[in-house]
Amino acid sequence: MKQKVLIVLALVALALTLVVTRSTHNAQAQDGGWMGTGRAGGQNDIQQSDEGTFVLNGHEWRSKKAFVDSGARCSTKFVDEIEASEIDNALARFQKERGSSAEDERPGGSVTVSVYWHVINRGSGISNGDIPQSQIDSQINVLNNAFSSATGGFNTPFRFVLAGVTRTTNSTWFTMGSGSSAEAQAKAALRVGGANTLNIYSASPGGGLLGWATFPWWYAGDPQDDGVVLLYSSVPGGTASPYNLGDTATHEIGHWLGLYHTFQGGCSTNNDYVSDTARERSPAFGCPSGRNTCSQSGLDPIENFMDYSDDACMYKFTAGQSARMDSLSLQYRGL
């Protein structure tokens, strides 16, 4: 009799454990399941399964989806529909005044962008962010391949030339966040050139962020803020796998030249204001072949540099994206 009672009690205890475990799992799923520091939440990804723990630059999330939903994949400030519509109308006026259209694009490789690279570190050695010249040169090569037809995408007008490199040891700037006082101080001290000069700051942004950029139409209102900030280990040969082939820079420079994310407006008519990128409800992660989150037009553009796929999955800008970058860079950057 005593043995039967013990068995019953053990079964009850096991059942209670399962209930508590399931409740905890559900609660984590409802809050985005994020273990890091920063913004939680995000759009639902309706055709991708979740994964195991994801770690990047010492920060841990419950999954890669949680990392993407947190906003750490790209911290470029969101442009709402009102601002996007105003920019689109201003672009149409600009093209009309010039007697041009999106079809009047400059030839591939005809626009040279001067790049100043600012290496912000906390000491000597790659682990402290002091990346070598060889990695910077490799990143410039990745950009020139991505913006030409070398990777399989459209041959855009843009080519990048390294004009200078600075190296600064500052532990506060090294961990700067988007919109922080540390970012403002670093850019005020280091930025060179005008609207047509690309300033890249490599550092180790707080919260596990990969990078962010400014849009071209923001330059007039805050010239000092203009540029791109990158996680130093996202450059080619870095340790930020699967984002260590150099396409975080490609993605952020796409913003710097005027592109939105491919999922900017979800399945809406405008979406990313580019006609030849299929509509996409939410950001992709990994390399989900055959993903289709909108019914109106084709498979999701997971191979596009302006999605959130792994670096190895990205390889193209489209003709429409190239035309948009060309027009907006001419309008706002004088490139």
Architecture overview:
With 335 residues, this protein is α/β, with parallel strands linked by helices. The chain is 32% helix and 13% strand. The protein has a 5-stranded mixed sheet. The protein is globular, with a radius of gyration of 22 Å. 42% of the residues are buried.
Supply database-style keywords.
335 residues, alpha/beta, 5-stranded mixed β-sheet, 7 strands, 13% strand, disordered N terminus
Helix content: 25-40%
Which structural class best describes the helix and strand composition? alpha/beta
Strand order of the largest sheet: 4-3-5-7-6
**Rounded Rg:** 22 Å
Helices, by number, come to: 8
> What is the general shape?
globular
What proportion strand? 5-15%
